[in-house]
Design a protein that fits this description.
13% strand; globular; 6 helices; single chain; 184 residues; alpha+beta
Length: 184
């Protein structure tokens, strides 16, 4: 018999937190990859490209990817840079915290993390998590396609791509279900 502690998070909260972590991981990888491509002329690469500090890579991305673009794309990319900076504390709370729930406030969860000899608490509602997840997905889209023409060009070059959810709609059952057998 296995005995384990639970997180006290609902399935929906757990799903959203996992989605936020996954989206942010994609975001960091996208930023790193774009920066690496933009630095293909450098040898050796700057130390920041060891990818141990996302903030340093993000600053290089601004310099090497966003700044050289035309006015329209540069404005969109700089706005995403600013949004990433604003969301960093939220991301830190989501990724580096333990989660608490209180029956007196059932619509909230509290992320508790240690930072520089203190405990920091951040309170979230389900709507906060939904918004964060959507916002990161939007940032990812806009750093990949800062102009409508960029998306059109990719489709023209590569043809149509299908998402996992699109695949499942066309060809059958989901490949992953939660423990109840329902989609998350």
């Amino acid at each position: 018999m296995r005995i384990a502690l639970q997180t006290s998070l609902s399935k929906r909260e757990t799903y959203l937190i996992g989605s936020i972590v996954s989206q942010w991981g994609y975001l960091e990888a996208d930023i790193f990859e774009q920066t690496l491509v933009a630095m293909s002329d450098l040898d050796p690469l700057p130390k920041a490209m060891s990818n141990t500090n996302f903030g340093l890579v993000l600053d290089l991305w601004l310099e090497r990817v966003a700044e050289p673009k035309d006015d329209e794309r540069r404005a969109v990319l700089k706005a995403q840079y600013d949004m990433i900076q604003l969301l960093t504390d939220f991301r830190q709370a989501v990724v580096h915290s333990r989660w608490e729930w209180n029956a007196n406030k059932p619509d909230e969860v509290v992320a508790v993390r240690a930072k520089k000899k203190e405990l920091i608490r951040a309170t979230f509602t389900i709507n906060d998590l939904i918004e964060m997840d959507a916002r990161i997905g939007e940032i990812r889209y806009l750093i990949r396609y800062p102009s409508e023409q960029d998306r059109a060009d990719e489709l023209a070059d590569d043809g149509i791509r299908i998402s996992r959810s699109g695949w499942e709609m066309l060809f059958g059952q989901p490949t992953v279900t939660d423990e109840t057998g329902d989609d998350p």
